[in-house]
Each structure stands twice: as C-alpha cells, then as structure tokens.
Amino acid sequence: MDNLISLVNKIQRACTALGDHGEENALPTLWDALPAIAVVGGQSSGKSSVLESIVGKDFLPRGSALVRKEIADETDRETGRSKQISSVPIHLSIFSPNEGQPDSIVQDIENMVRSYIEKPNCIILAISPANQDLATSDAIKISREVDPKGERTFGVLTKIDLMDKGTDAVEILEGKSYKLQYPWIGVVNRSQADINKNVDMIAARRREREYFSSTPEYKHLAQRMGSEHLAKVLSKHLELVIKSRIPGIQSLISKSIAELEAELSRLGKPIATDAGGKLYMIMEICRIFDQNFKEHLDGIRPGGDKVYNVFDNQLPAALKRLQFDKQLSMENVRKLITEADGYQPHLIAPEQGYRRLIESSLVSIRGPAEAAVDAVHSILKELVQKAINETAELKQYPSLRVEVGNAAFESLERMRDESKKATLKLVDMECSYLTVDFFRKLPQDIEKGGNPTHSIFDRYNDSYLRRIGSTVLSYVNMVCASLRNSIPKSIVYCQVREAKRSLLDHFFTELGGKEQKQLGKMLDEDPAIMERRTALAKRLELYKAAQAEIDAVAWAK
Ligand SMILES: Nc1nc2c(ncn2[C@@H]2O[C@H](COP(=O)(O)OP(=O)(O)OP(=O)(O)O)[C@@H](O)[C@H]2O)c(=O)[nH]1
C-alpha cells in the first residue's frame, strides 16, 4: 500500500514541479488521471481542521475570513510523515481563485470546486457542521450534483460538540436521517479557543477519542468516529482507487508518450548552440530542400513534365504563329529585293535580297526562343516554391526559408540570363551564316521545274518573285526545324541542368563567411514553437519517469 501511495505522491509531485495541473495549454495531462482527495464545505465548516487532523499536522491558516488570502499564498505544500495518525503521506496542492473579484467570488469558488470534484478520480470529503441544518449544507449539495450515487463521497460531520443542548447527531451518524453510500463520520476538531491556547494535535486527538467514548449518545458509534478513523477509511479507499486506476494510468501514459514524441518530431530538433552546429543544420536543411527540388525535375515529384510541355507544345506553336509564308508574300519579297538592289538592279541573282529576306525572317525566331526561356524559368520558380513548401524543416525557421527562397530565385535568374544569351546566339548564328549547299543546288532545281518564259531581263515579274519567296521559305523552314530542336537543348543545358547542379552554390559560398550571430538569425525559430518544444520535452520527461515508476510498482506486485 505504502509504495502505491508513495508512487502517486511521486507522480503528483513531479506533475506539480513540471506545471501539470491538468489545465490549459493543451498538453496531455496526467494530473487529471491521478486519484485525489478534495475537501469541500461551507465557510467555517471545519475544512482546514479536518484536513489537518487527517494529515496529523498543523499547516493551514484556520478560522473564518483569514483564510482565503493566506491560502492563495500557500499553494503546493507537502505534508510530512506522522506516526500518530497515518503512515501514509498525502501530497497536497491547494488551489484558490484569484482575489479582487468581490462580486463574483462566491460563484468563482463554486466553479473552481466543481471543476475539481467533478473529475471521476476525485474522492470528495464533504464537510458539514453538525450545528447547522444538513438541508442547507453546501458540501452535500455540491457533492450530490457531481456524484449522485455517492460512490466517491465521504460525509464528515464536524462541530458535534457545538450542538445545542438536548440535540444530537445520532440520527445522522447512523444514516437514518440522511443516508450516504459510505457511513457518516463524526469528528470533533479543536475549537477556536483550543487553537488560541495552542492545544496540540496529540492532545486534541486524545480529547476527541474521549469525547466519543464517554458521551452516552455516541458511545456505541465510537469505533467508527473521529479523525483517526477517518484517516484510516480514506487511506484504505485511496488504496483501492489507486489499484483500480493503475492500468488506466499506464495506458494513458503510453498513449501520451506516443503523442508527445510525435509532436516533438513534428516540431523538429532544437537549434544547435555553436556556429558549427548551426552551419551544419542549415546545410542539412538546404540539402533536403535541394533534394525535393530535384525530385520534381526528375519525375519523382510532379511538375517537371511542364518543362517538356514547353518544348513539345509551346515552342512549336509559337514558331508556327510566326507565319513565314505571310512574311514572304510577293509584295514583301518585291519590296526587300528592290531595296537591296538599290540604284543598280541585280544582274544574275539577287544575292543581297536573299540575305535580307532570310535574315528578316530568322530574326523573328528570337521572340519564341526568348519566350521558351522565360516559360521554363517560371516553371523552375514554381518548383522551387513547391520544394520550399514541402520542406518541413524550413517551416520551422521562417528567416532561413526566406533566405533560401531568395537565393534559389536569384540563381534561377542568373541561369535565365545565361540561357537567354546562349539561346539567342543560336538564332543569331543562323542569321550570320547561311547553308551554302542549299543555294548551290538551287539553279538546277529551278531549271528543272523552271518557268520557260523566265529571262534574266524579266527580273521583277510575279513568278520570279514568287520563286524567290518559296526558296527563302523553304530555307527558313529548314532552319526553323533545326532551331526547334536546338533551342530546348540550350535551355536544358543552361537552366534545367544548371539548376539541378548548382541552385544553392552561391548561397553556400556566402554561408561559409557568416558569423555565428548571423547564422543564428537565420535559425530564428518562432518563440511560440520554442516554448512549445520545451513544454513538450518537460512533459515527456515526466511521463517517462512516471512510466518507469509505475512499471516498477506494478511488476513488484
Ligand atoms: N468546537 C469546535 N470547533 C471547530 C470544529 N471544527 C472547526 N472548528 C472551529 O471552527 C472554525 C473554522 O474552522 P476551519 O477549520 O478553519 O474551517 P474552514 O472550513 O477551513 O474555514 P474557511 O476556510 O474560512 O471556510 C475554527 O475556529 C475552528 O477552530 C469542531 O469540530 N469543534
């Protein structure tokens, strides 16, 4: 028995030390599951006196009015062992509502009391003074409310010695006038005069014993009256309750440990204190982010296929929209050839005119090429954002999240600029040197299917111009088909591959030069999370200790 109660005491003490009073902050609570005794009763009914005599020690301020303020200062006290009364120490915490609310104080106290005694683990000591009508007893009223069957209520009748002459409490104590599940226990505590005279607990106890054994009305009940008997009954009951609660407490503890551990791992590790540890932590988080980003491109996570869509749909569609055939209408061909000829019309073939026509068509490919670079850039940005959101570790550190995001976006922009330069160069290269072979084959082709009316003196007639237009169109189409293949290569090389390879390289270089303080700033966790982690860790420690204690007692049984 002793080790059971001392176990509950230990756990209760640990709960108190770690701030578990079964309230607020949404942490799992052990407090509510632990068996407890609450003493309830009207003002000056004798609550403090009963509590002290059970415990066998003077430790509470007593008497009406005095009491509330002092109790507020006297929270969380623990009693010592006392051979005279009970070998069982009871861990005691006293709670009182805040002062300074005169209008609502009665209701506040009632609510506070109710909040404790309505818990099924609470044993209620309902104190009623014998010199008042039981029908008006606050203790009976409130305990009936929360424990209608009286399964955990012990009725205690105080001030039996103060009853009017000619009246007695026999009817009540015998359970005739007011029956409770457990028999009433009458007590005689020290009067105010005794307290003033410093009558000690031992003397008070002796007098109480004498009172019941020598008063004719109560003689036959003496065996089950008095503070000592009350302490024994309570202690026995407490033992039963604790025994029955242990399996429930054990499973509550295991469940709570699992919950606490899960939340702690969701919150992530606490921040390292030294510069090296911080740097390592940042690099590690970046590595996880970088991995997530790559997985998007490699198809492990979604989104990378959008890049292919740019090459397969967007770029070809944009090239198609250029409508070279319209650019090479007869009118445009005539205009460019005439302009290129200048004051001296061409003699054999309009070499300059050809070049201008080709160049003016090819230059327009720059637009779709640039658009493809930009489209891939937006997709990469989107994937960076996704990867950031998916990196749980970055949620923990808002500053690092911003810095990593900015560094990644800056890198992508640098890569976009490079890609634009390289991709436009491909187009410009096509403008700057034409494929000679294509044109060398031309005269034969023209001769084969040529117009017999054509003569070199008939330079600007429609069919001549149309022929030039269609030659240029087929050349431009040939170049366009080849750029359609090479532009994606340039983009993948400069942007996609580079992003996979070196997205955070710049960031890492800068990181290497940072001081511990700057690294600390990047890991500036939300203070609420830090507090929560500390609270969770403390509570976990309590539960683990409680688990070990309970297991030891349960196995020893
Ligand atoms: N004669 C006699 N006096 C008692 C008895 N029980 C309590 N008293 C006296 O009644 C007064 C109030 O007792 P407390 O134990 O302080 O009562 P309480 O319910 O704790 O009081 P509050 O906390 O102020 O409501 C004190 O002066 C006690 O000495 C009793 O059984 N007999």
UniProtKB/TrEMBL annotation:
It holds the Pfam family Dynamin_M. The keyword Calcium does not apply. Residues 1-247 form the Dynamin-type G domain. It comes from the Eukaryota. GO terms for cellular component: cytoplasm; membrane; microtubule. CDD domains: DLP_1 (cd08771). InterPro entries: Dynamin (IPR022812), Dynamin_GTPase (IPR001401), Dynamin_N (IPR045063), Dynamin_stalk (IPR000375), G_DYNAMIN_dom (IPR030381), GED (IPR003130), GED_dom (IPR020850), P-loop_NTPase (IPR027417). Gene3D superfamilies: Dynamin, middle domain (1.20.120.1240), P-loop containing nucleotide triphosphate hydrolases (3.40.50.300). Keywords: GTP-binding, Nucleotide-binding. This is Dynamin-related protein 5A. Transmembrane segments: none annotated. GO terms for molecular function: GTP binding; GTPase activity; microtubule binding. Residues 465-557 form the GED domain.
